[in-house]
Predict the structure.
Amino acid sequence: MNSLRRLSRALFLGAVCFAGGASARAQFAWEYGGFVEQVAQAYARRPNPSDSHAISAGRLQLWTRATLGPRLSWRGSLDFGLDTHRNVDRRRWTDLSQQGLLQPAGSVTEFYVDAKLGKADLRLGKQEIRWGRADGFNPTDNLVPYDYLDTFSDQRIAVPALKADIYVKQARFEAAWIPFYTPTRLPLLNQRWFPRLPSRTFIPVDGERVEAGLFYRDGRLALPPRTFGNGQWGARWNQLVPRAEFSISYFDGFDDIAFFRPEAAPLPELAQTPRLLVRLNREYHRVRIVGADFASGFGPLGIRGEMAYFDQTDPGNRDHLLFVLGLDRTWGDWFAIIQYAGQKVSQKLAGSAVFPDLGLRSTALLRIERNMGPSRSFEMKVALRLRDGDFMLQPFYNVALSNRWRLKVGATLFGGTREGFLGQYRDSSHLNLQLRYTF
Protein backbone atom coordinates (compact mmCIF):
# COMPACT_ATOMS: atom_id res chain seq x y z
CA MET A 1 0.00 0.00 0.00
CA ASN A 2 3.00 2.36 -0.27
CA SER A 3 1.67 3.55 -3.62
CA LEU A 4 -1.63 4.56 -1.98
CA ARG A 5 0.25 6.50 0.65
CA ARG A 6 2.20 8.32 -2.03
CA LEU A 7 -1.03 9.06 -3.88
CA SER A 8 -2.62 10.40 -0.69
CA ARG A 9 0.37 12.63 -0.10
CA ALA A 10 0.37 13.93 -3.67
CA LEU A 11 -3.36 14.69 -3.72
CA PHE A 12 -3.20 16.86 -0.64
CA LEU A 13 0.21 18.46 -1.07
CA GLY A 14 -1.16 21.46 -2.90
CA ALA A 15 -3.89 22.01 -0.31
CA VAL A 16 -1.38 21.78 2.54
CA CYS A 17 0.87 24.32 0.90
CA PHE A 18 -2.04 26.69 0.39
CA ALA A 19 -3.44 26.36 3.91
CA GLY A 20 -0.04 26.64 5.50
CA GLY A 21 1.34 29.40 3.30
CA ALA A 22 1.30 31.95 6.11
CA SER A 23 3.20 29.54 8.36
CA ALA A 24 5.62 28.23 5.76
CA ARG A 25 8.64 28.72 8.02
CA ALA A 26 6.97 27.28 11.11
CA GLN A 27 7.18 23.69 12.21
CA PHE A 28 3.92 21.76 11.96
CA ALA A 29 2.79 18.18 12.48
CA TRP A 30 1.41 16.49 9.40
CA GLU A 31 -0.39 13.13 9.25
CA TYR A 32 -2.03 11.30 6.39
CA GLY A 33 -3.60 7.92 5.71
CA GLY A 34 -6.81 6.29 4.55
CA PHE A 35 -8.59 3.04 3.95
CA VAL A 36 -9.84 0.75 1.21
CA GLU A 37 -13.22 -0.87 1.80
CA GLN A 38 -15.23 -3.48 -0.07
CA VAL A 39 -18.89 -4.11 0.76
CA ALA A 40 -21.09 -6.90 -0.63
CA GLN A 41 -24.79 -7.57 -0.07
CA ALA A 42 -26.80 -10.65 -1.04
CA TYR A 43 -30.60 -10.58 -1.41
CA ALA A 44 -32.99 -13.51 -1.80
CA ARG A 45 -35.60 -11.51 -3.73
CA ARG A 46 -35.94 -8.78 -6.36
CA PRO A 47 -38.98 -6.61 -5.55
CA ASN A 48 -38.41 -4.49 -8.70
CA PRO A 49 -37.15 -5.46 -12.17
CA SER A 50 -34.18 -3.09 -11.78
CA ASP A 51 -33.02 -4.76 -8.53
CA SER A 52 -30.43 -7.51 -8.35
CA HIS A 53 -29.72 -10.42 -6.03
CA ALA A 54 -26.19 -9.28 -5.23
CA ILE A 55 -24.43 -5.94 -5.26
CA SER A 56 -20.92 -4.86 -4.40
CA ALA A 57 -19.32 -1.48 -3.80
CA GLY A 58 -15.74 -0.35 -3.29
CA ARG A 59 -14.55 2.78 -1.52
CA LEU A 60 -11.18 4.49 -1.18
CA GLN A 61 -10.75 7.32 1.31
CA LEU A 62 -7.59 9.43 1.62
CA TRP A 63 -7.20 11.88 4.49
CA THR A 64 -4.65 14.27 5.87
CA ARG A 65 -4.46 16.66 8.81
CA ALA A 66 -1.88 19.18 9.92
CA THR A 67 -1.17 21.36 12.91
CA LEU A 68 -0.12 24.74 11.58
CA GLY A 69 0.58 26.32 14.96
CA PRO A 70 -0.61 26.41 18.57
CA ARG A 71 -4.05 27.68 17.53
CA LEU A 72 -4.53 26.58 13.91
CA SER A 73 -5.03 23.17 12.31
CA TRP A 74 -6.79 21.72 9.31
CA ARG A 75 -8.18 18.42 8.02
CA GLY A 76 -9.19 17.18 4.59
CA SER A 77 -10.34 13.93 3.03
CA LEU A 78 -11.27 12.64 -0.42
CA ASP A 79 -13.57 9.74 -1.26
CA PHE A 80 -13.63 7.62 -4.42
CA GLY A 81 -16.16 4.87 -5.09
CA LEU A 82 -17.50 2.43 -7.66
CA ASP A 83 -20.28 -0.14 -7.46
CA THR A 84 -21.93 -2.85 -9.52
CA HIS A 85 -25.48 -1.48 -9.30
CA ARG A 86 -24.76 1.94 -10.82
CA ASN A 87 -25.75 3.89 -7.69
CA VAL A 88 -22.47 5.72 -8.24
CA ASP A 89 -22.32 8.36 -10.99
CA ARG A 90 -19.11 7.48 -12.81
CA ARG A 91 -19.16 10.80 -14.69
CA ARG A 92 -18.62 12.84 -11.50
CA TRP A 93 -15.11 12.40 -10.10
CA THR A 94 -14.67 15.83 -8.50
CA ASP A 95 -18.08 16.57 -7.00
CA LEU A 96 -18.26 19.50 -4.57
CA SER A 97 -21.99 20.29 -4.43
CA GLN A 98 -23.34 16.79 -3.53
CA GLN A 99 -26.69 17.66 -5.15
CA GLY A 100 -27.03 14.73 -7.56
CA LEU A 101 -29.48 11.85 -7.17
CA LEU A 102 -26.57 9.38 -7.35
CA GLN A 103 -23.44 9.16 -5.24
CA PRO A 104 -20.48 10.84 -6.97
CA ALA A 105 -17.53 8.69 -7.97
CA GLY A 106 -15.22 11.24 -6.37
CA SER A 107 -15.90 13.91 -3.77
CA VAL A 108 -14.31 16.09 -1.12
CA THR A 109 -15.63 14.47 2.04
CA GLU A 110 -14.21 17.04 4.46
CA PHE A 111 -12.02 20.11 4.14
CA TYR A 112 -11.93 22.54 7.06
CA VAL A 113 -9.68 24.73 9.17
CA ASP A 114 -9.90 24.84 12.98
CA ALA A 115 -8.92 27.90 15.03
CA LYS A 116 -8.78 27.86 18.86
CA LEU A 117 -9.16 31.36 20.27
CA GLY A 118 -9.24 31.10 24.04
CA LYS A 119 -12.83 30.40 25.02
CA ALA A 120 -13.99 30.13 21.41
CA ASP A 121 -13.41 27.52 18.72
CA LEU A 122 -14.00 28.30 15.04
CA ARG A 123 -14.27 25.83 12.17
CA LEU A 124 -14.55 26.92 8.54
CA GLY A 125 -15.02 24.60 5.58
CA LYS A 126 -16.81 21.43 4.55
CA GLN A 127 -17.70 19.55 7.74
CA GLU A 128 -20.21 17.41 9.62
CA ILE A 129 -22.20 19.05 12.43
CA ARG A 130 -24.09 16.60 14.63
CA TRP A 131 -26.57 17.46 17.36
CA GLY A 132 -28.58 15.30 19.72
CA ARG A 133 -28.05 12.73 22.48
CA ALA A 134 -30.39 9.90 21.52
CA ASP A 135 -28.94 6.70 20.05
CA GLY A 136 -29.40 6.38 16.30
CA PHE A 137 -32.58 8.47 15.91
CA ASN A 138 -31.93 12.18 16.51
CA PRO A 139 -34.82 14.59 15.84
CA THR A 140 -32.62 17.65 16.58
CA ASP A 141 -29.82 16.62 14.19
CA ASN A 142 -30.90 18.72 11.21
CA LEU A 143 -27.88 20.71 10.03
CA VAL A 144 -26.32 17.91 8.00
CA PRO A 145 -28.18 15.82 5.38
CA TYR A 146 -28.08 12.02 5.14
CA ASP A 147 -27.22 9.59 2.37
CA TYR A 148 -30.39 7.47 2.20
CA LEU A 149 -29.63 5.58 -1.04
CA ASP A 150 -29.72 2.71 1.44
CA THR A 151 -32.67 3.83 3.57
CA PHE A 152 -31.26 2.52 6.85
CA SER A 153 -27.74 3.87 6.47
CA ASP A 154 -26.54 6.44 9.02
CA GLN A 155 -24.03 8.02 6.62
CA ARG A 156 -24.00 11.83 6.64
CA ILE A 157 -23.05 14.27 3.89
CA ALA A 158 -20.69 17.05 4.99
CA VAL A 159 -21.70 20.64 4.16
CA PRO A 160 -19.76 23.91 3.75
CA ALA A 161 -20.26 25.87 6.96
CA LEU A 162 -18.84 28.30 9.47
CA LYS A 163 -19.24 26.97 13.01
CA ALA A 164 -18.41 28.66 16.31
CA ASP A 165 -18.33 27.16 19.83
CA ILE A 166 -18.13 29.58 22.76
CA TYR A 167 -17.46 28.26 26.29
CA VAL A 168 -18.77 30.10 29.35
CA LYS A 169 -18.28 28.23 32.64
CA GLN A 170 -20.51 25.13 32.41
CA ALA A 171 -22.23 26.23 29.21
CA ARG A 172 -21.36 25.94 25.54
CA PHE A 173 -22.99 28.08 22.87
CA GLU A 174 -22.89 26.75 19.31
CA ALA A 175 -23.76 28.64 16.16
CA ALA A 176 -23.49 27.50 12.55
CA TRP A 177 -24.06 29.23 9.22
CA ILE A 178 -24.46 27.07 6.12
CA PRO A 179 -24.29 29.30 3.02
CA PHE A 180 -25.24 26.69 0.40
CA TYR A 181 -27.97 24.06 0.47
CA THR A 182 -27.25 20.32 0.28
CA PRO A 183 -30.22 17.87 0.15
CA THR A 184 -30.46 14.42 1.66
CA ARG A 185 -29.76 11.83 -1.04
CA LEU A 186 -32.90 9.70 -1.24
CA PRO A 187 -33.41 6.13 -2.51
CA LEU A 188 -33.74 5.80 -6.26
CA LEU A 189 -37.26 5.70 -7.62
CA ASN A 190 -38.54 2.27 -8.72
CA GLN A 191 -35.71 0.54 -6.89
CA ARG A 192 -35.44 -1.52 -3.73
CA TRP A 193 -35.31 1.17 -1.03
CA PHE A 194 -37.76 3.76 -2.35
CA PRO A 195 -40.91 3.73 -0.17
CA ARG A 196 -43.91 1.91 -1.59
CA LEU A 197 -46.30 4.12 -3.54
CA PRO A 198 -49.90 3.38 -4.60
CA SER A 199 -50.00 1.19 -7.70
CA ARG A 200 -53.61 1.93 -8.63
CA THR A 201 -56.18 4.71 -8.38
CA PHE A 202 -59.64 5.57 -9.69
CA ILE A 203 -60.18 8.17 -12.40
CA PRO A 204 -63.41 9.53 -13.95
CA VAL A 205 -64.14 8.18 -17.47
CA ASP A 206 -67.44 9.06 -19.20
CA GLY A 207 -69.04 9.86 -15.87
CA GLU A 208 -67.86 6.66 -14.19
CA ARG A 209 -64.99 5.89 -11.83
CA VAL A 210 -62.55 3.53 -13.54
CA GLU A 211 -59.52 1.85 -11.99
CA ALA A 212 -56.20 2.92 -13.50
CA GLY A 213 -52.64 1.67 -13.03
CA LEU A 214 -49.94 4.07 -11.86
CA PHE A 215 -46.34 4.20 -13.11
CA TYR A 216 -43.74 6.57 -11.66
CA ARG A 217 -40.84 8.56 -13.10
CA ASP A 218 -38.54 11.24 -11.72
CA GLY A 219 -39.69 14.74 -12.63
CA ARG A 220 -38.18 18.16 -12.11
CA LEU A 221 -35.58 18.79 -9.43
CA ALA A 222 -36.20 22.28 -8.02
CA LEU A 223 -33.28 22.87 -5.65
CA PRO A 224 -32.95 26.21 -3.85
CA PRO A 225 -30.53 28.46 -5.75
CA ARG A 226 -27.03 28.50 -4.29
CA THR A 227 -27.15 32.08 -3.05
CA PHE A 228 -26.29 33.63 0.29
CA GLY A 229 -29.93 34.67 0.59
CA ASN A 230 -30.82 30.98 0.83
CA GLY A 231 -28.31 30.38 3.60
CA GLN A 232 -29.27 28.31 6.63
CA TRP A 233 -28.32 28.77 10.25
CA GLY A 234 -28.68 27.08 13.59
CA ALA A 235 -27.87 27.81 17.24
CA ARG A 236 -27.62 25.59 20.30
CA TRP A 237 -27.16 26.23 24.02
CA ASN A 238 -25.67 23.28 25.88
CA GLN A 239 -25.61 23.37 29.69
CA LEU A 240 -23.92 21.11 32.24
CA VAL A 241 -25.65 20.71 35.61
CA PRO A 242 -24.91 18.30 38.47
CA ARG A 243 -25.18 14.72 37.12
CA ALA A 244 -26.85 15.83 33.88
CA GLU A 245 -26.64 18.00 30.79
CA PHE A 246 -29.22 19.43 28.41
CA SER A 247 -29.46 21.64 25.35
CA ILE A 248 -31.96 23.82 23.50
CA SER A 249 -31.56 24.37 19.76
CA TYR A 250 -33.07 26.24 16.83
CA PHE A 251 -32.63 25.74 13.08
CA ASP A 252 -33.83 27.95 10.21
CA GLY A 253 -33.22 26.48 6.78
CA PHE A 254 -34.60 24.19 4.09
CA ASP A 255 -36.03 20.73 4.59
CA ASP A 256 -33.31 18.33 3.43
CA ILE A 257 -35.96 15.77 2.34
CA ALA A 258 -37.85 16.64 -0.82
CA PHE A 259 -41.53 17.40 -1.05
CA PHE A 260 -42.84 15.35 -3.99
CA ARG A 261 -45.38 17.13 -6.18
CA PRO A 262 -46.98 14.60 -8.60
CA GLU A 263 -47.97 15.35 -12.20
CA ALA A 264 -50.06 12.66 -13.91
CA ALA A 265 -50.57 12.11 -17.65
CA PRO A 266 -52.34 9.24 -19.46
CA LEU A 267 -50.27 6.61 -21.23
CA PRO A 268 -51.29 5.09 -24.59
CA GLU A 269 -53.97 2.51 -23.92
CA LEU A 270 -52.34 -0.75 -24.98
CA ALA A 271 -54.46 -2.66 -22.50
CA GLN A 272 -58.04 -2.56 -21.26
CA THR A 273 -57.01 -0.94 -17.97
CA PRO A 274 -56.15 2.78 -18.26
CA ARG A 275 -52.63 3.74 -17.19
CA LEU A 276 -51.22 6.96 -15.82
CA LEU A 277 -47.61 8.10 -15.81
CA VAL A 278 -46.90 10.06 -12.63
CA ARG A 279 -43.86 12.32 -12.63
CA LEU A 280 -42.65 13.13 -9.13
CA ASN A 281 -41.26 16.66 -9.03
CA ARG A 282 -38.95 17.36 -6.09
CA GLU A 283 -39.28 20.64 -4.26
CA TYR A 284 -37.48 21.93 -1.17
CA HIS A 285 -39.18 24.36 1.19
CA ARG A 286 -38.19 26.31 4.28
CA VAL A 287 -38.52 24.73 7.69
CA ARG A 288 -37.96 26.02 11.22
CA ILE A 289 -37.13 23.57 13.98
CA VAL A 290 -37.09 24.04 17.73
CA GLY A 291 -35.42 21.20 19.64
CA ALA A 292 -34.25 20.10 23.06
CA ASP A 293 -32.37 17.11 24.49
CA PHE A 294 -30.99 15.90 27.79
CA ALA A 295 -28.89 13.12 29.32
CA SER A 296 -28.61 12.13 32.96
CA GLY A 297 -28.04 9.18 35.26
CA PHE A 298 -30.14 7.40 37.86
CA GLY A 299 -28.09 4.87 39.77
CA PRO A 300 -26.70 2.34 37.25
CA LEU A 301 -29.03 3.58 34.50
CA GLY A 302 -28.47 6.34 31.99
CA ILE A 303 -31.46 8.39 30.89
CA ARG A 304 -31.62 10.39 27.68
CA GLY A 305 -34.27 12.10 25.64
CA GLU A 306 -34.75 14.31 22.63
CA MET A 307 -37.59 16.15 20.91
CA ALA A 308 -38.05 18.60 18.04
CA TYR A 309 -40.97 20.52 16.55
CA PHE A 310 -40.91 21.07 12.76
CA ASP A 311 -42.72 24.12 11.39
CA GLN A 312 -43.11 23.20 7.71
CA THR A 313 -43.86 25.57 4.82
CA ASP A 314 -44.34 22.97 2.05
CA PRO A 315 -47.74 22.63 0.33
CA GLY A 316 -48.55 19.61 2.51
CA ASN A 317 -48.01 21.74 5.61
CA ARG A 318 -47.09 18.65 7.62
CA ASP A 319 -46.03 20.30 10.86
CA HIS A 320 -44.95 17.58 13.25
CA LEU A 321 -43.37 16.78 16.59
CA LEU A 322 -40.77 14.01 16.91
CA PHE A 323 -39.50 12.65 20.21
CA VAL A 324 -37.43 9.80 21.64
CA LEU A 325 -36.82 8.70 25.23
CA GLY A 326 -34.39 5.98 26.33
CA LEU A 327 -32.65 4.11 29.14
CA ASP A 328 -29.17 2.60 28.90
CA ARG A 329 -26.85 0.58 31.08
CA THR A 330 -23.27 -0.66 30.93
CA TRP A 331 -22.12 -3.71 32.89
CA GLY A 332 -18.86 -5.50 32.30
CA ASP A 333 -18.35 -5.96 28.56
CA TRP A 334 -22.03 -5.33 27.80
CA PHE A 335 -23.90 -2.20 26.82
CA ALA A 336 -27.67 -2.00 26.22
CA ILE A 337 -30.03 0.82 25.38
CA ILE A 338 -33.77 0.76 24.79
CA GLN A 339 -35.67 3.75 23.43
CA TYR A 340 -39.20 4.72 22.47
CA ALA A 341 -39.65 6.95 19.41
CA GLY A 342 -42.92 8.65 18.57
CA GLN A 343 -44.45 11.46 16.57
CA LYS A 344 -47.42 13.74 16.26
CA VAL A 345 -48.17 14.76 12.65
CA SER A 346 -50.74 17.39 11.64
CA GLN A 347 -51.59 15.71 8.31
CA LYS A 348 -52.10 12.12 7.16
CA LEU A 349 -49.12 10.31 5.62
CA ALA A 350 -51.08 7.69 3.66
CA GLY A 351 -50.26 7.59 -0.06
CA SER A 352 -47.04 9.62 0.23
CA ALA A 353 -43.40 8.60 0.30
CA VAL A 354 -42.33 8.27 3.94
CA PHE A 355 -38.67 8.19 4.94
CA PRO A 356 -37.07 7.38 8.32
CA ASP A 357 -37.68 10.89 9.67
CA LEU A 358 -41.44 10.16 9.78
CA GLY A 359 -41.40 6.36 9.56
CA LEU A 360 -40.66 5.55 13.20
CA ARG A 361 -44.15 5.99 14.63
CA SER A 362 -44.62 4.35 18.07
CA THR A 363 -41.37 2.43 17.67
CA ALA A 364 -39.27 0.59 20.23
CA LEU A 365 -35.54 0.77 19.46
CA LEU A 366 -33.09 -1.64 21.09
CA ARG A 367 -29.32 -1.89 20.74
CA ILE A 368 -27.16 -4.43 22.56
CA GLU A 369 -23.40 -4.49 22.23
CA ARG A 370 -20.76 -6.79 23.69
CA ASN A 371 -17.03 -6.16 23.52
CA MET A 372 -15.30 -9.55 23.40
CA GLY A 373 -11.75 -8.32 23.75
CA PRO A 374 -9.55 -5.91 21.78
CA SER A 375 -10.31 -7.51 18.41
CA ARG A 376 -13.93 -8.72 18.47
CA SER A 377 -17.37 -7.29 19.17
CA PHE A 378 -21.00 -8.21 18.62
CA GLU A 379 -23.92 -5.83 18.12
CA MET A 380 -27.65 -6.33 17.75
CA LYS A 381 -30.08 -3.62 16.65
CA VAL A 382 -33.87 -4.04 16.76
CA ALA A 383 -36.66 -1.69 15.65
CA LEU A 384 -40.26 -2.75 16.43
CA ARG A 385 -43.20 -0.57 15.42
CA LEU A 386 -45.68 -1.23 18.18
CA ARG A 387 -48.87 -0.16 16.39
CA ASP A 388 -48.27 -1.99 13.12
CA GLY A 389 -46.19 -4.93 14.34
CA ASP A 390 -43.53 -4.68 11.63
CA PHE A 391 -39.87 -4.86 12.61
CA MET A 392 -36.23 -4.72 11.56
CA LEU A 393 -33.47 -6.91 13.04
CA GLN A 394 -29.74 -6.26 12.46
CA PRO A 395 -27.07 -8.53 13.99
CA PHE A 396 -23.40 -7.64 13.32
CA TYR A 397 -20.10 -9.29 14.19
CA ASN A 398 -16.84 -7.32 13.98
CA VAL A 399 -13.37 -8.88 14.07
CA ALA A 400 -9.93 -7.36 13.59
CA LEU A 401 -7.99 -9.81 11.43
CA SER A 402 -4.77 -7.84 11.99
CA ASN A 403 -3.69 -4.32 12.84
CA ARG A 404 -4.86 -3.17 9.40
CA TRP A 405 -7.53 -5.63 8.27
CA ARG A 406 -11.05 -5.63 9.75
CA LEU A 407 -14.04 -7.80 8.80
CA LYS A 408 -17.69 -7.09 9.55
CA VAL A 409 -20.44 -9.61 8.77
CA GLY A 410 -24.12 -9.27 9.49
CA ALA A 411 -27.66 -9.26 8.21
CA THR A 412 -30.69 -7.00 7.97
CA LEU A 413 -34.03 -8.75 8.36
CA PHE A 414 -37.50 -7.25 7.93
CA GLY A 415 -40.85 -8.69 8.93
CA GLY A 416 -44.48 -7.86 9.65
CA THR A 417 -47.28 -6.40 7.58
CA ARG A 418 -46.37 -4.97 4.18
CA GLU A 419 -48.46 -1.90 4.97
CA GLY A 420 -46.04 -0.89 7.71
CA PHE A 421 -43.00 1.33 7.16
CA LEU A 422 -40.56 -1.48 8.00
CA GLY A 423 -42.70 -4.34 6.71
CA GLN A 424 -42.77 -2.90 3.18
CA TYR A 425 -39.11 -3.95 2.90
CA ARG A 426 -39.73 -7.65 3.60
CA ASP A 427 -38.36 -8.53 0.16
CA SER A 428 -35.15 -6.62 0.91
CA SER A 429 -33.79 -8.71 3.78
CA HIS A 430 -30.14 -9.36 3.05
CA LEU A 431 -26.74 -10.55 4.21
CA ASN A 432 -23.90 -8.06 4.45
CA LEU A 433 -20.11 -8.36 4.34
CA GLN A 434 -17.62 -5.53 4.79
CA LEU A 435 -13.84 -5.83 4.53
CA ARG A 436 -11.60 -2.83 5.27
CA TYR A 437 -7.86 -2.26 5.00
CA THR A 438 -6.52 0.79 6.84
CA PHE A 439 -3.20 2.36 5.90
Remarks:
- The first strand starts at residue 29 and ends at 43.
- Residues 2-19 form the longest helix (18 residues).
